[in-house]
Design brief:
Elements: H1 3-7, H2 24-33, E1 37-46, H3 52-66, E2 72-77, E3 83-88, H4 93-112, E4 116-124, E5 130-136, E6 141-145, H5 155-165
Antiparallel strand pairs: 1-3, 1-4, 2-3, 4-5, 5-6
Length: 188
């Protein structure tokens, strides 16, 4: 940040520490001990950037994840126009986190860090519904999201999950930042 930025009150948002994604396998163990089931699925959500460079960067990220042949990657859009790369690596939490890190890092290094919104790791809750552990790229924190039906969520379950993973990953303390991910393809 330069002198004029400081005088004019502009600030540069801090860069997220993507290495925090490598702490998620410990959170997986904590949640499994509470009756949650790791699905082996996660996703990266980003806004569209105009031009061919965006498509090339996403193609490269997909190819990187598919290198070892054990993960699958799907592209999709939600009803709000956000793009998702959904990665599936059954039974391998460290591998999935490495894949999500690679996708986020690849897009950030290609200059698209301002377009990255969040990453998710998906579980099945004891009641059979989905639960996403959501990483906010710009905040460097996690929060739980438990959708239950059309535009509803289970807030009590989300608070329970917050307590279960608080020692494993940095949890977003501002509850107003616990945004609903309606239409996320892997949380339906």
């Amino acid at each position: 940040m330069g002198l004029f930025d400081a005088i004019l009150g502009r600030s540069k948002p801090p860069e997220a520490d993507l290495d925090i994604l490598f702490q998620v396998p410990q959170a997986v163990l904590s949640l499994e001990a509470q009756g949650f089931t790791f699905t082996g699925t996660g996703g990266v959500c980003f806004r569209d950037v105009e031009g061919n460079a965006d498509n090339l960067s996403v193609d490269e990220a997909e190819q990187l994840v598919r290198l070892d042949g054990t993960a699958t990657v799907e592209r999709s859009d939600d009803s709000f126009g956000f793009h998702w790369l959904t990665v599936t690596r059954p039974g391998d939490a460290p591998g999935l986190c490495t894949d999500l890190h690679a996708v986020n890092s690849g897009l950030a290094q290609a200059g698209f860090s301002s377009s990255l919104l969040c990453s998710t790791v998906v579980f099945t809750a004891p009641d059979g519904g989905p639960l996403g552990l959501v990483y906010l790229f710009k905040r460097g924190t996690f929060y739980p999201f438990a959708p239950r039906g059309e535009q509803r969520r289970d807030n009590a379950l989300e608070l329970q999950v917050r307590g279960a993973v608080a020692n494993d990953v940095p949890v977003e303390s501002d509850l107003s930042r616990w945004l609903a991910l309606w239409g996320a393809p892997h949380l339906a």
